[in-house]
Records
---
Amino acid sequence: MLRFSTWKFFAIVAMTLAAVLIVAPSMLSASHYEQLKSRLPSWLVPPTIVLGLDLQGGSHVMLEVDQADLIATQVKNLRDDVRRILREEKVAITGGIGTTARGVQVRVADEADREKILPKLRQLRNSFSSALMGGPSPLDVETSPDGVIRVTITDAGLTDKSRKAVEQSIEVIRRRVDALGTREPSIQRQGDDRVLVQVPGLQDPETLKEILGKTAKLEFRLVAEPGQNPSETEELDQVEQEGKIAVEKQVMVKGEDLTDAQPGFDQQRSGEPVVNFRFNIRGAQAFGEVTSKNVGRLFAIVLDNKVISAPRILTPITGGSGQISGRFTVEQANNLSILLRAGALPAKLNIVEERTVGPGLGQDSIDAGKRAAYVGAGLVVVYMLVTYGVFGVFANLALFVHIAFIFAGLVLLGSTLTLPGIAGIVLTIGMAVDSNVLIYERIREENHAGRSILASLDAGFTRAFATIVDSNVTMFVAAAILYFLGTGPVRGFAVSLALGILTTIVTAVTMTRMMIAVWYHYARPTKLPI
Amino acid sequence: MKLLRLAPENTKFPFMRFRRVSYPFSALLSLIAVALFVFKGMNFGIDFAGGTVIELRAKSGAAEVGTLRTLGESLHLGDIEVQAFGNPADATLRFGLQPGGDVAQQAAVERVRDAVGAYYDLRRVEVVGPRVSNELVQSGTLGVVLSIIAVLSYLWFRFEWQFAIGAVIATMHDLLLTVGFFSITQLEFNTTSIAAILTIVGYSLNETVVVLDRIRENMRKYKKMATAQMVDMSINAVLPRTIMTATTVMLALFALVAFGGQVIRSFSLAMIWGIFVATYSSIFICSPMLIYLGLRNEDADKAAMQKHETERKAETADSLRNEAAEGQAAAPTSSPAATEKTPAPARKAAGKRAKTRPA
């Protein structure tokens, strides 16, 4: 009991000092922290504790790929591909290209024609998805005896598209969120079809949702002429006016061929806010070609399947730039240009979960958490003191180090402190003394059974240790599972609970033992003080 | 300095005798808890039920709950719940899932924002769509089940199987009563509540382990003592620690309830209840289970029984002559006469043996 190796003593003292040094900067105000950082070399100043969104305010938005929309887009692309093949092979079909729930179908009456296009259709598999080489086919191509060929997207093909859509979306979303000028946004994929966006300290969460919720799929299409084949056109809503307008399904130029988009004002007419854009070479060529062939016709600017405006093609537009007008406000023009610059999302994303905390509420939560922690710790400290006297002082010192260790652990792991996390720390304050209580009660018991003070101290520590390990392991397992299955704030709780359990072993057992050993050495008590 | 002692010293409560009361009592409470869960149900928060919570603070003056309620109802968002709490300027609005999938939920928030935005700041907005809430239910349930399995496997590995069974039953008991607590108080049940439940499970096992550890130690020390007596002795020995720890944790929790704010209040209240239940079940549910399951002390019990039997036979023989002796035949098996205390030197030796533990 009294023998305590010197290295152990110094190891504990060093650990305590390190913990205090690691935590200290987090306790400083933001301005003092910056000062400290500017004066010392950066590797010397540890980072501060990261506060969760519930404490510093911010937005947590979970987006999910809209499956219905994804299927619709893929079917549309498939339809364009099939149309291209039919045209290239000069194959005549009976009726138009029909769509099914998950694919397209065409009726080719002539068998030779069928044989000609079938290999081409099967080849679509390769371009449809490259990641699935050797895996399950993303497309099914089947023919029925009456000459109908069906091309269907399989589940595997859809999952693959969904996963790809998420990957591309993350890039697009990052560009969009960065345009808002927020600090340290976190954008992560979740599962096969979700993206989690977390933006701390946002003053205006509405704009975030505004720019996250839009697909921003821009298309230039010709407005249908009377008498055009109805299967080649569709009716779309208009933004400016009531009622629908029929446009061709065929897309002239897509938004992905834009190189730039900037908000501006209409120079010639009203001076209303507009968005000026520039095409890349491919876009400029295609746009020039279509406008040269269709002078006098109307073309529609379609954003997310709504017609923003439908101006008339007066002269061929070959310069590769243009402007979108649509009775915008300045803010709308600004947001639209952000969206066009960042590019379109490959699929529509829906907000399936949103948690937004204003900065004021976050500060209130921090204050409440602090108050609860001070009061809780204060009560426990006083209680230990009146129950165990000088041993209570040791337990309290150990408790102080224990809390320092938890915070140091949070800094080192870079994990976030959430409100439930604070609750977890307050709870471990109560739990940490459990180990001390186990030891002290055992010491008393052994002493009452007639052992000498030294023997009681020794027996108390050795016997209680096994129990402490067993009980802490069970608690730790619960915390670990909570961490792996929990989300957001609950995870924060699991982390502080788990850290608290680990540090308990060091502080409540080893440290207290050391303090009692030193105390015994100098005080030479004749009677156990508890 | 005179130190404070809340726990009485050297108690000799015959805890095991209460098992005939505690088992039916707990069974009844568990049944009530299940019935409450089935018939009254839980106040599921938006995490599990889906829906929207909006926390408002009036830009000036106090929040007008009545006005908010009428306003809320005029938006046709189904059942809308308006509550004032804490600061008089604060109020929360809560409404369920809107028909029309994820898009409809966001549209509903927009309508509320438009309606109240001029007079109130939206301090917190939480929207959980139908699919996410289903997943949270699944992962929550999975978490509770998995952690119980994991912890029990550890107990199985560290202790005899009887201990693990006893711990399972005690944990289930605590779980049921906590669910019952949520149902009867109608405290909001959300992901934080799952954290509370898992912490209660952890604490309950912690309590159980402390008692079981002492039982195991004493089991080796007092090989010839009847199980019930040995269990009683062990519980009495750890009783001061049980009371001390429960009190300190309670102090911390009361601080959380009083000062921790709205968000973690239901968590803290559930924890307080959980500490009560866990302490009770470790003593009155888990420990008696060891007697029912016939712990290692079978031999000692048998010896005690036999000894008692012979005594009884002798007594019966006596009673042939003396009819009044019949009542004594019903003496409990763990009567002190049937057991012997290990002499002190042997006890020390046993104590040393107990130190070498199985890996």
---
Amino acid sequence: MTTIEGLDVQKVRADFPILTRTVREGRPLVYLDSGATSQRPRQVLDAERAFLEQHNAAVHRGAHQLAEEATDAYESARARIAAFIGAGPGEVVFTKNATEGINLVAYAMSNSSIRTGLGPESERFALGPGDEIVITELEHHANLVPWQELCRRTGATLRWYSITDEGRVDLDSIELTERTKVVAFAHQSNVLGTILPVAELVRRARAVGALVLLDACQSVPHMPVDLGELDVDFAVFSGHKMLGPSGVGVLYGRAELLAAMPPFLTGGSMIELVRMEHTTYSAPPQRFEAGVPMTSQAVGLGAAVEYINDIGIDVIHAHEIALVRQAVDGLAAVPGVRIIGPQDLTDRGGAVAFVVDGVHAHDVGQVLDDRGVAVRVGHHCAWPLHRRFGVAATVRASFHVYNTPDEVAALVEGVQAAREFFGVVS
Amino acid sequence: MYQEIILDHYRTPHGAGLREPFDAESFQINPTCGDEITLRVKLDGDTVSDVSYETLGCSISQASASVLTDLVVGRSIEDSMRVLTAFQEMAQGRGQVEPDEDVLGDGVAFAGVARYPARVKCALLGWMAFKDAVVRTAQTQDAAQTQATRDPEEAQP
């Protein structure tokens, strides 16, 4: 079934109950939408259930036994996730999702920019008119809109690297300046599959003293990522794209930065000393986790990391790259199909977006859906990128460890069927 | 879902293209997929005398706009809104609403779309543009009337 040594895909599939169901009148499900959300193995579901049945309590409050056990489970999950990404436990903040992680940083910077009642340590996060935030044209809306909003609130200017026809970042399109305060970009495009040149972008950001935020939503679930080694300041990713639960994501921040950064959300749990007139805040990561956090979800994400570690993230990556190779080659061979993104697999990961001449992406998706093949259609929350390529919508296939070469073949056959159905076969 | 009638309208859309003159124009987008329609309405008294449009969208949204022109051009505004309501009820009916062919004509072909909630917006995009454009013509007329009634008063010292 697969050519990757050390991976038995059928055995893996047996861990994912949902993959055995049928859709649209008895068709076996071919799930090729893991870039939107991945499916969860029984081990993750069991971990959540076991936590809730045996240890559930509000974490970081109360001294009873359940509270201790719940806190221990929550913090153990944090430590396991931190180790997985090359971070210290104190550098991992649990958020609702990656979007909240980016907003947390943007609002902390916004709060710093108001400059009242904050210590001098927050000055490095302050922005004003003339300052710049730099992103790229391929960003997910989650790594675009929060920065637009931060610019609107502070008077800073948003600039971006443009994207080449091949789907790579055009590093010559803009120059960073001494006024560049933040450089934020995706590790891997959720549409094109392009892996961005992190080291070069970090080097350029460091040269002007800018902070770097990495959107790692499409990289951490699919390939080995060591955030310490990448030397980024912040990074975000979500649990539900890495075989874990929804409702939990991670903001990574370098310890020294989190220690200096003011909070975004305030309230219970994140305090040190509260008086009617004034409050001081706890050390990170608690400073950024106001209120009772998601708990069974964090435990589930810890279990997902354990599941991935048991298989090996490098094995998963090799498997997915083989599927991407098959998908890119198979689709490119279908007349009228144009792949949006690099066909060269150098610095490329597992999202394959394409258009079919004469058939709208929705219609391709519908024909695929009727055959049991679940893909994403539309702009995939990267509307400016689609505009850049002159298309309103694309079809996107994306993979995870449980996908098989047969499923990629079903995708390619389905695309051919869509062309036939809409009569664009010459 | 893809009835032959829908594919016919998709391949040979009726009334496509933007035409002058028109009384009001509406631009609608489907934010989930980025599909767009620009639709113009021309009225002759209370009658819809022309609907012209340009779409960037899937077969469902294009065919739906084509069917719309067949169903509303030549009708009174009141009648066309009745058709619109019937079409919308069918499309949003999750397959539970039995469409009336006497009212909806070729529009009944879209009954199958109701079973695909993600596509309902596609089928309704043109209709929402039509509704919006008709409302705009009324606003334009109201404004013109208000202007006409107000002007003489304002002209007084």
---
Amino acid sequence: MLLTLDLNDPRPLHEQVAAAIRRAIGAGDVAPGDRLPPARDLAHALGVNANTVLRSLRDLRDEGLLEFRRGRGVSVLRRPDGREALRTRARDLLDEAARYGLTTDDVVALIKDVIKDLGEDPGDDSGKEMA
Amino acid sequence: MTDPHDRSVTGFRTRFLLAVSAWAVLVAAVLVAVPLAFADRLPDPLATHWGPSGRPDGSMPFAAFVLVLVVLWVVVAGVGAGVGARARTLVRRTPRAWYCAGLAWAGGLMVVTQAFTIAANLDRGDWTRAAGMSWQVVVIVAAPIALGALGRLAGLRGPDVPPAPPRTRPRIDLDPGKRPVWVSTTTAPWAAWLAIVALAAAVALAGTALSGLFPGGWRAVVPLAVVGVVGTVLSSVSVRVVPEALTVSVGPLRWPSRRVRLDRVERAWVEERYPAQVGGWGYRGLPGRATIMIRGGECLVVRYTSGGRLAISVDDAEAGAALLNALIARQRPSVER
């Protein structure tokens, strides 16, 4: 399983690990029914404590994304739905914006700009897709 | 795999199982019919073992002689057919041909052994007066091998599915603010169970030997313990790729473990490898050209700058190879790939 930790993420480590696993599930790197590698292997690769990984796995189980089964380890139960996936990506977007020195309001304004651009293009391919 | 392809495989599996069953029933019928046909001309017990001198030195009751061979054959044919009919084995020519060869050889060996045993005992009043074995040994060795070769030829017929096309390359985020890692673990539950059974047997035997109940037990303790330990170590493999190094570790304790700095890795790719190609399960081949074979299929292959290479059977190897290559390219931009 391919995981990417964001080194500039100010959130607690277990939330970062959970976000990385959520991203991997959302991107389809691991599909429902697939087993995750053991927590200690994940911990060793990510360079964090195994208890931190276990805490993230429990959080993801409480979200309903993972399933713990005795003797069979941890497996993916379902993919995050659109809203959860977008929330993770919105969070990434805000983090990236902060790195460029943009505030949350700047990002909101930017999104509104993009919506205006899309709205001013009726009859275009993108317009048909939206309909 | 596409749908029409699956249908042709299903049809082939039916024909394959029919042919294997026909062979199994034929051999079983011979193993039962031949001794029964000669039952009134055979001594009971009859000679079933011959010493190096060619004289009979062991006997078995008639019923046991018939039953042992039939039961042994049913087990061998059942396991052989079951393993051979698995989708992965069935559609690939090399392993299928070897399974067919094995089944033909085993059936031939049993029929020929039984035939010569009966011939030697025929019309002798007592097993100790059974005829000797001399040239018959050559036939008992050679005839099953010839049958096995025929079986292998039969197994070569049929489809040979090329390995599945590589999946789309995963996107690798090599942003300096990101730390990409790849983790993959493969386990073979049957190896773990084999190891547990062997270790339990070793402990039980050592216990009975210590208590003086079965002093001869010591001889089996060491081989069983070795099987147990080796089985445990080779029941799982874990591969980790981090921006600094590649780590391969085996066994539930993740030991032994090998860590290779990425500047010593030249390139990584994915290959389909099967136990039939590399010579079985476990650590196969010599260091420098080795395969760590836990299960057949997708393997991550790594070539070192020293020229050696290592293949490890792990899932999701495509992503691991892509990350390794991306990290190597970032570390050594001059190397053209």
---
Amino acid sequence: MDNVDSFKMFNSDEERIEIKKLLSSYLYNEDTNIESAAMLSDKAVFEAETACDVETGKCTEQDAVENLIDRQTARVSVWFSENGKEIVERAFEAAGIGVGILLSRWVGPNAILISRKIGQVLGRTVSKTAEILIDKGIRKIGQFGKKLWNWTKEKVARPLYEKMKKTCNFS
Amino acid sequence: MDKEVLENMLKEYKESGLSADEFVLKVLKDKGSENPEEDIEKLNRIFKEIDKSYLEIKECKENGVSRENYLKKVIDRVTSGLNPKNIGKVLSDMIFSFRNVPHKNEETAIPYNDDTDVDYVMELSDAIKEEVITGISTEEE
């Protein structure tokens, strides 16, 4: 296996964007428009890189989860900026397609599994090292995620949530 | 999604000698895109904006401003002057989509206004978090 300390999935930002565009062209079809394909590509690439960062020690599982949430929030912000006005004016349909259907292409269980599979292919395509790092990193993040999920279910989250509502500083 | 098909596509790209944009143009044309050049421009723009938004969220958090606050600013900017009832319907729809639950009747969604905006944004932010956490906890079948 290559030296993981200096491991990078992509040699440059340009290479990362190229891969995302290639993935988007693969995902694009009559049910998945170019925008949804872009969102899903970004998700897959970011998750794969985050998995590598966890496995190489560049970030903790906790930071990884935080980054994944921030990235999804960024995608939602961009998606809403692009589509929100039209959807609201037409009362939740853009070009005749409901919000739920538009989002389902890159949000939810199906998107999660597609993203995971893309990550595996990316790993295999880049190198054996990448494949191993992504696989191990995803498992580590997954184990941490399961603990978080159980914590959320145990109503510990509710008092925290109420506290967050009061302390979130909305300007 | 077929892993082998994707792997073959990426292999074909490497062997083609084409630039990424040239290859993507070819794929989109073959798939019937009406304006593949425009689609590539859209891809460039979306990826750039996601990167920018992500950095803005990180910067907000470093300055003690919550992710929810950022999200609220985006929602308020996009929906300024629009029908509050419709805004409420759309945000409710988004929240249900992220939670992957059947949508309740959108007609009962409360309007988005000064009394409800924080609750809507918190619910949407929570739904996003839950979707991400569910995703990372999901094992491939």
